[in-house]
Amino acid sequence: MLDIWRLKILIQFDTLKTMKRVADVMAITQSAVSAQLKQLEKDTNTTLLEKVGRNVELTPTAKDLIAQVRPIIDELEAVEVSLTGADTNYEGIVRIGAFSSALQELVVPATAAVNHQFPAVDFRLAELEPPASLTALSAHQIDLAIVAYIGDMMPLPADLTAVELGTDALKVLVNTQNPLASQTAISISDLRDQDWAMEPDGAYLSDRVWRLCQEAGYQPHRIATFQDYAAIRSAVQYNVGIGVLPGITIPAQLTATRALPLTPGQHRHFYLVSRKAQAHLKTIEATQQQIIQTSAQVLTTSHTAPTINRTRQTTRIVHGAQHPNRKRD
């Protein structure tokens, strides 16, 4: 009989791609990960790992094995959950990963509302960027993830499903003393001669802004580079430069600052992602519904679109997805 623990390690390697990351998640050493996978090769009488350059990758046989056992692991998780009563009762732990602004505006209010109705639900919240959230979700480290992209969503593994929560639009922040503050909207071309406060290169918003500027025939004159959006807002407030930020990150009350629509419009799409195997859990259902309700109040455009099931084979990867360690709000 195949060892469930070893199969879980193999599945984690498929998700996380390195021995080190698997070791961190499974709370064991890298040598133990390697030893368990080697033993699994002996148990199955197959080759599961192969060297490709400097990396270790799964063989086609390993991928076939994972495809067969992943549903079984999900079934075992469902059995374990049923024994705790979480499939019929509103109790237990729900782990949620989301980027900072989504945590502040969507997740925290939603979980507070769920707790008010169902005090036995215990939440664990983590600040994670979209790629890291999806990895953690597939690795069973969290139960729900909120991600956002300008453009297409990243591809989802077959065991995950997503529903679009809504959108927010990019806006241009200018100081009230800036001549552009008198306009009702601002185009990228209008910003040709402005000083910019921006995120570092590699952040999805920074990359999108650079592309828009290049399409308009210039490169932005960046005079400040900040890791988070609050610093960009501060730079605008003190008339150091202008900034372009997603609407959800802009407070309703601004000091010495105007937030104007960017033309042509650029919209960020929010998604709530979950594992299909947990869809029947009462705690997950209640949390998802409350996040959807909260999003309808916060995001500029709410959606009641059907669930999105996207796979690596059918969906294009969004260009310039944010680095998992990039901090922003």
Account of the protein in words:
By secondary structure, the chain is α/β, with parallel strands linked by helices. The chain folds into three domains: 4-83, Arc Repressor Mutant, subunit A, CATH 1.10.10; 85-167 and 268-302, Periplasmic binding protein-like II (D-Maltodextrin-Binding Protein, domain 2, 3-Layer(aba) Sandwich), CATH 3.40.190; 168-266, D-Maltodextrin-Binding Protein, domain 2, CATH 3.40.190. Helix content is 38%, strand content 24%. The chain has nine helices and 13 strands. The strands form three sheets. Strands 3, 4, 5, 6, 7, 10, 11, 12 and 13 form a nine-stranded mixed β-sheet that branches. A two-stranded antiparallel ribbon has the order 1-2. Strands 8-9 form a two-stranded parallel ribbon. Helix 7 (204-215) links the parallel strand 8 and strand 9 (221-225). Helix 1 packs across helix 2, helix 1 (4-16) crosses helix 3 (30-44) and helix 2 packs across helix 3. It is globular. It starts with a helix and ends in a 27-residue tail after the last strand. Mean pLDDT is 85; it is low at 302-307 and 309-328. This is HTH lysR-type domain-containing protein. One of its GO terms (molecular function) is DNA-binding transcription factor activity. One of its GO terms (cellular component) is protein-DNA complex. Belongs to the LysR transcriptional regulatory family. Keywords: DNA-binding, Transcription, Transcription regulation.
